[in-house]
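Case study 2.
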Amino acid sequence: MIIILAVILVFGGCACSSYNGLVTTDQKVQNSWSAVETQYQRRLDVFKNIENTIRASAKFEDTVLTKVTRARYEAEQIKLDPNNPASIQQMQRAQQNVANQFRVIFENYPTLQTTQAFRDFQTQIEGTENRIAVARRDYSNVVNEFNTKVLTFPGNIFAKLFGFKEKPYYKADEGAEKAPDVFKP
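Prediction:
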């Protein structure tokens, strides 16, 4: 009787230990996949915000360029008659308007920012994609730990008994192994 009781206690202890280990590792897998999804969401949020910032910056710079170009065009359209004081004054006002447009731009906005915003966007893309790659790698590592427990003895017995099954590793999209041709003509 003592032997049977000892076997039941040992088996029960192993079952509890295996079950708890499987549950703990299963939770790590779910948490790790959640981290991947968090990075996907971050990518969407960051890209949306950066895109809106770049669009606003580009619109502002386009407006600035339009104002300067218009002022320059208007100044060039004036026919200067050196014998007519009104013509000279009109030319001076037009030249002053162009100078004022440039002064306002360069005093308030010494560097137009769209090009730098695009560079910053590229850096954000790279950083975000690196975070996603790390999260995917971490997920695959935890899946490996879980699958090892599910497939090795005696864990495989308890995994089947408690309904735990192997988890899928992260899989890249079909064709992702080929580098994209960024510079297609």
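The chain has four helices and no strands.
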